[in-house]
Each structure stands twice: as C-alpha cells, then as structure tokens.
TrEMBL record:
Protein name per UniProt: Urease-associated protein
Organism: Amphritea atlantica
Renumbered residue ranges of the record's region Disordered: 58-82
Short name of any one Pfam family annotated for the protein: DUF1272
Length: 102
C-alpha cells in the first residue's frame, strides 16, 4: 500500500493526499509536477526511474475499511539526499533514455 508521502522531496512543497500535483516513481519517491518537469527531467534522482501521477486514495469509505480514514497518508517528510548539483548531473546523464529503457 502506498504511504502517500506529504511533501516534494526536492522543494519540500506540501503534497496532501488529495493533491493532483504529486508524482511518484516505482519506489514511491515523491516529487511535485514542477520539480519533475523543470528540475528532474522526469528522472527520479534516487533511482533513475520515471514518474507517474500519484493515485488519490478515497477520503470517504465506499467499501468497508477502505479509505484515508482507515489507511491515512504518512506525515513523515522525506528529502532526497542529493544536492542540486548532483541531481542535475545525474538527471542530465540519463534524461535522453526513455524511462522504460533505463
């Protein structure tokens, strides 16, 4: 189950559970759309994968036990361990390779 991280790992923008601005990689690294497009070149700086929009977990229970009420989003803020220079060098080195071929 997705942890639904509360922030962009790059700029620390708040990304609440219902945000349509949140993007994740296959490891659930979480970044805002602006960072994905303008800083990361659609390359996760942590794993090298691509991004997809983060799904939105239903706030209301439509089936018993299945909603944010029963499985809340994480409150633990996460930040990438890499510096802006390291991110730029890494993403520039693989951005020309399609995510499915990385």
């Amino acid at each position: 189950m997705l942890t639904i991280r509360p922030n962009c790992e790059c700029c620390d923008k708040d990304l609440p559970a219902d945000s349509t601005e949140a993007c994740i990689c296959s490891y659930e690294c979480t970044f805002c759309r602006d960072c994905v497009a303008n800083r990361l070149n659609n390359v996760c700086p942590n794993c090298g994968g691509g991004f997809t929009p983060r799904p939105i977990r239903p706030a209301s229970e439509h089936r018993p036990g299945v909603s944010l009420q029963h499985h809340p989003a994480s409150t633990d803020r996460v930040h990438t361990p890499y510096s802006p220079a390291e991110i730029r060098a890494f993403t520039d080195s693989v951005k020309s390779i399609k995510p499915e071929n990385r």
